């Protein structure tokens, strides 16, 4: 049962107004556009698989120091005391973005602010099929984080378990190029990834991350380092994290970050990585019990070592159960009213861990910035798909592709 419970993963985010009033958000920073250009897509790539990579060595705290290296550990970055440490809350939603689930995102996440006046964050791990890229552009321009969840998201799960480096290039490296192109968002704004079904692929996924400018992975659950919780760390050295969905990486990947999925504990103490995967959960109609369930899990972090708290969910779970959505909104309201807890984009957690500062100093920092973009919305179709022969229609922010974009032809040329 444990493996079943752990395999379903979702991330969700909900936002509401704090204290019944809408604070005026500080202006968003606008960074300079990057001149970084994406690599070519992998169409036609026939690179041989590398030999087995050497094993990473045991982590040496003297050699591995912030900002670019951190040993896997439950210790608070920067040696801070828990009371001086910001409690980050990362809400994440997985899979395609479409006209159905955008309603939930708009209703729960938009116009929500943390106690420092900065817009609350959330991260979307987006898979390609049936995604409406005009809506991805909308989420991006609302300041949320767009991350990768593969082009195909295909079954069976063994496809991912056995995936080679070249498959991961096609599913994630190419997806970054595809996402940037179809949603018209900056290539370099896409920094994170999560593999479907939380199925680790050994070294394969990590071998491609640096080439594509992917800074962190948010696939790897831990069920043993939950109290105190495991903080994000890099793969310069061997990880001490439990491997819940093997195979886990064995080689060294300098500067590549792991944002662990620190499991919740259900009502019977069984760990669950996604909220909608908790087996012994409260009655789906009982809002109060759900609110208490969420808060109990949150307090393990907030009253402990303040490791980032994840609310990972699928939108379908929330839209199916309004009482749970209400509990989730109440939880977000609570977090947004706490002076030392912050709903942020996942990548902001990595940024803080690199340069940890006490909560008072964190609150004085400017809000996250992003480069606003526009979308010339275009409706495309029918587009024939080579992988299943079906016709698809797409909403994108670019000129229409010739065929339906897919693995090996991510731009549909
Ligand atoms: Zn998924």
Query: Sheet bearing the most strands, described?
Result: 5 strands, parallel
* Number of helical regions: 11
Q: Which CATH C-level class of the largest domain is it?
A: Alpha Beta
Helix-strand string? HEHEHEHHEHEEEEEEEHEHHEHHEE
Q: Overall pLDDT, averaged?
A: 91
Residue runs with pLDDT of under 50 for 5 or more positions: 1-35
Q: So, CATH architecture of the largest domain? A: Alpha-Beta Barrel
Give me the Rg, rounded.
20 Å
State the helicity in percent bands: 25-40%
Please identify which CATH superfamily of the largest domain we are dealing with. Glycoside hydrolase/deacetylase
Our estimate of the beta-strand percent is 5-15%
* Bound heterogens, unique: zinc ion
Count of all domains: 2
Coarse structural class: alpha/beta
What is the number of strand segments?
15
Domain NodB homology: 85-215
InterPro entries: CE4, Glyco_hydro/deAcase_b/a-brl, NODB_dom
GO biological process, one term: carbohydrate metabolic process
Organism: Mythimna separata (Oriental armyworm)
């Amino acid at each position: 049962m444990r493996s079943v419970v752990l395999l379903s993963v979702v991330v969700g985010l909900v936002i509401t107004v704090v204290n019944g009033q809408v604070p005026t958000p500080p202006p968003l920073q606008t960074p300079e556009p990057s001149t970084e250009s994406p690599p070519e897509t992998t169409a036609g790539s026939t690179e041989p698989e590398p030999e087995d990579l050497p094993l990473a060595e045991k982590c040496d705290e003297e050699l591995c120091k912030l900002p670019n290296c951190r040993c896997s550990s439950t210790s608070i970055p920067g040696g801070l005391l828990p009371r001086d440490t910001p409690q980050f809350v990362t809400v994440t939603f997985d899979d395609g973005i479409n006209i159905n689930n955008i309603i939930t995102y708009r209703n729960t996440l938009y116009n929500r602010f943390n106690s420092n006046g900065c817009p609350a964050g959330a991260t979307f791990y987006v898979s390609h099929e049936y995604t409406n890229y005009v809506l991805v552009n909308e989420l991006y321009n609302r300041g949320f984080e767009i991350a990768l969840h593969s082009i195909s998201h295909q079954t069976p799960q063994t496809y991912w378990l056995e995936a080679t480096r070249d498959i991961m290039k096609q599913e994630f490296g190419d997806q970054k190029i595809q996402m940037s192109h179809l949603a018209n968002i900056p290539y370099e704004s896409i920094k994170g990834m999560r593999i479907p079904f939380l199925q680790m692929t050994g070294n394969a996924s990590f071998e491609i991350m640096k080439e594509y400018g992917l800074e962190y992975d948010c696939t790897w659950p831990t069920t043993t380092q939950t109290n105190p919780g495991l903080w994000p760390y890099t793969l310069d050295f061997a990880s001490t994290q439990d491997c819940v969905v093997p195979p886990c990486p064995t080689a060294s990947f300098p500067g590549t970050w792991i944002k662990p999925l620190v499991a919740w504990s259900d009502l019977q103490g069984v760990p669950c990585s996604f909220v909608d995967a908790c087996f012994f959960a409260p009655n789906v109609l009982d809002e109060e019990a759900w609110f208490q369930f969420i808060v109990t899990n949150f307090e393990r972090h907030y009253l402990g070592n303040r490791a980032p708290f994840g609310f990972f969910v699928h939108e379908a779970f929330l839209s199916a159960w309004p009482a749970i959505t209400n509990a989730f909104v109440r939880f977000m309201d609570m977090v947004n009213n706490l002076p030392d807890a912050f709903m942020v984009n996942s990548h902001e957690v990595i940024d803080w861990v690199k340069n940890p500062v006490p909560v008072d100093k964190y609150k004085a920092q400017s809000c996250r910035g992003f480069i606003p973009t526009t979308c010339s919305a275009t409706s495309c179709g029918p587009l024939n798909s080579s992988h299943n022969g079906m016709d698809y229609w797409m909403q994108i922010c670019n000129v229409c592709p010739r065929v339906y974009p897919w693995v090996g032809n991510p731009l549909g040329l």
